C-alpha cells in the first residue's frame, strides 16, 4: 500500500518555501504576469534575429483559425509557390475547405471499415478503444494530404472559400463523432446478432451518406469542374478553360508526391534506425498505406532541408509547437523560459524520455522557408512559415533556433532528390515495421 501525504510533509514544504527569498519574488511576479511572462529570456530573442542567409519567398501567410488543419495548410503551402509561379498570380492560395470536405468523408469511411474489421473484438480491446475514443477529427499527417491530393486534385480558394464551420471546427467534430459513434454501436450490434457482412456494408453506405449531408451543409459541395478567372501579377485578366480539380493539380502544380519521403528523428526505445515505421490503424483514404516514418536522426534531416531550400523549395515538417515557444513573438527557441530558475526545480529530460513518457507530442505541422548558415557552415536558426495568420509571429513567420530543431522537430517530408542516395536506397528497400497507435507520433 502506498504512503499517504502527512502533516509533517506539508510543514516541511512550507518551511522550505518561506525560507527561500527567491520564491517570494517569483510569487509576486507570477501573480501579476503569469508563469511564462515572468521568466521569458529577452536575450534569446536578440540572439535569434529575423534575418536568414537563405530565404525562400513563399507568399502571403495563411490562417487555419480555430481548426486542426495545420497538416493540410502546411502541405498546400509547399505546393502554393509552384502554382503561383505557373499561374503568374501573386499570393495564390488553394481551397483548404475543398480538401477538408473529402478528408472528413474519407476518415469516416476509414473509421467504419475498421469497426467492421474489428467486429469480433471486445469493447475494452486497446485498438477498438483507441478508435472509438475519437472517430473523426480534423488533425492529420502528411500521408493523408498526399492521398487526398492524388485522389481529388486541388482547387483555387476563390471557388470554395472557408465557411464559418470550416475554420471553427469543434461543432463539426462533435456532430460527426456523435453520428459515427452511434454507427459503430449499431454495426457491432448487427454482428453480435448474427448479421451478415454484406448487410453491414449496406449500413455503412447509409451512414456515409449522412456524413456527406453534414459536410455539404457545413462546408458546401465541392465542384467537379470549374472555370478559373483571375488577375495575374501584372493585373491582366486571365480565364482558364473548364477543367477538373485533378487536371488543375496536374497542369499547375505537376509534382509527383510519391517522390517525397519522410525523414524522422524518433528516438523511441524500440524504433530501429534507417527502417520504415508504420501504423496501418492511423489513416485517411482507405486502401492507401498508413502513417509512416523513416527513422534517420537529425543530421540527414537538416541536410535534406537545406538542399531543398537551396533549390527554392519549402519543406513540410512536424514538431511540438507547444514547447518553449512564444506565439505572439514568433519564437521557437529552446530554453526560452527560465522555469527552473523561477521555481527552483529540475526540468531536465532527453528527447527520448519526453517522447516515451508523453511529455511531448508531434502536434503541429508548418513549413521551413529559410535558414541561416553561420561562419562554420552550420545552421543556427531557421525561418518557419506558420498558418496562424499575420497577427502571430513576424507577419506570420516564426524564428526557430537550431537547438529547438534538435529537441522538438520530429519529421520532415522532402523530395528524394535532396536526400543522400544511399539513404534513399535503404528507404526504398526497407521492410515496413508495424507499430500500434499508442504513442506520441500518431
Average pLDDT, all residues: 96
Total of DSSP H or I helical runs spanning 4+ residues:
17
Quaternary state of this entry equals single chain
* Total number of beta strands: 16
User: Overall 3D geometry?
Assistant: globular
Residue ranges: pLDDT <50 for 5 or more in a row?
none
Nearest-angstrom radius of gyration?
Answer: 24 Å
β-sheet strand percentage? 5-15%
Helix content: 40-55%
- The end-to-end distance, rounded to whole angstroms, is 35 Å
Q: What structural class do you assign from the helix and strand content? A: alpha+beta
Largest sheet: 9 strands, mixed
Distinctive features:
442 residues, alpha+beta, globular, nine-stranded mixed sheet, three-stranded mixed sheet, 15% strand, 17 helices
